[in-house]
Amino acid sequence: MPSLTADKVQKVIYVTYLIAALDITWLFLQFSITPYLAKKLGFDTLWFGYLQTTVGVIQLLGGPVFGRFADVFGARAALSLSCFASIIYFLLLAAADSAVLLFLHKLPAVFMHVLPGTQMIVADLSQNEKRADALAKLGLCFGIGMITGSSLGGTLSTRYGEKFAACVGAGGSLISLLLVLKFIPEHTKIHSEKKSNGKSANSVFNLGEIVRLTKFPGVAKTFTIKIVSGLPAGVFQVMFSIIAMNFFQLQAEQNGYLMAYFGVLQMVMQGAVIGRLTARYSEQSLLLFSIGLSSLVGLAQAFTTTVLQFCFVVVPMMLSLSLFNVITDSMLSKSVPSSDTGAMLGLCASVQPLVRTIGPTIGGFLYETHGVASFGYIQFVVNAVIFTLMFMSSTRTHTTRNSR
């Protein structure tokens, strides 16, 4: 990688934040389109769940491979591929006038991994001790994109129709692609750090290289916690569009405003809270705190029956989710060599698609048989158990050290 001055590094990071904010904008614009378009095409809750599962499977397969692609071919190539896939994705969505086409338009999602790509760039260009704060700033971009995309998607869908909104998403993705080609360096890491330079090591589809990452100290444990603890909240998020439409009786524009409210909270948490917390407390302590808070949020969520009540519950919910995601991503990316951060963040990015794969089936069953409250109760129990096990483990470790 050619040497970058401090000013050049800062410029690349700022442009990376802009690309992330734009990508999240188009993502949430799509969230404001798909449920209502699916409803017009005759989808019920079960078939909408199948649609979500399709996306999950596609991105689950693509996430780790995308991470390896970024490590081997560089940040610019990886982000360019993702942005181009987004353009095709939205054009196909605009053309979707049947159930089959609505499913087919999800296929380009296998390459749509802009957020982990931007995470890789930030991780490569930031110092270890400032990595959590730098990744949190990407979460701030997430909040901006959530507000803009949800409001824009809801408004455009209501006033001009879903197809027009999808075309706007395609145009926006084209802008993102141009920014990548203009400002992102070909590589943001030094490839000579790689221990093995053989063909096998440089193969994008070398699953052994991906599996190897789980053997680094602490990776398997943290990754397991990331999946198990995040699963209940992830299932709720996957089903939220259905819950908002059927349980809270929200229209597309109202749902857009609610998502914008989530975005404001996300911005506050990522921009004003998480950076200060990571500067004062250890990542292990913050991880434990986020899991405990998530458990309490689940309990409160179980007793929520109105939109107003839910708006209050969302405040600690956004804090726990934001903190949990930032800390686990930071811990995992620090656990591997810098030459493997792309693959590691690709694995991290595969957690959400995994939830999308199994979440609709689990969520649809819970929603139809036990109601919305069941999501909260399960989140409470799962995270309470994990919190207890982690607390006991840390206490034993502390006691062992003191006895020495």
Describe the structure.
Helix 10 crosses helix 15, helix 10 packs antiparallel against helix 16 and helix 12 packs antiparallel against helix 16. 51% of the residues are buried. The chain is an all-alpha fold and 404 residues long. It is globular, with a radius of gyration of 21 Å. The chain starts with 5 loop residues before the first helix and ends with a helix. The protein contains 16 helices and no strands. The protein is 80% helix and 0% strand.
Features:
404 residues, mainly alpha, Growth Hormone, Chain: A, 16 helices
| CATH topology call | Growth Hormone, Chain: A
CATH architecture verdict = Up-down Bundle
What number is the mean pLDDT? 82
The proportion of strand residues reads under 5%
Helix coverage percent of residues? over 70%
Query: Helix and strand succession?
Result: HHHHHHHHHHHHHHHH
Structural class by SSE content: mainly alpha
Instruction: Name the CATH superfamily classification.
Output: MFS general substrate transporter like domains
Q: Say how many strands there are.
A: 0
Main sheet summary: none
Instruction: Sum up the overall morphology in one term.
Output: globular
Q: From the alpha-carbon coordinates, what is the Rg to the nearest angstrom?
A: 21 Å
Question: How far is the first residue's CA from the last residue's CA?
Answer: 46 Å
Number of domains as seen in the coordinates: 1
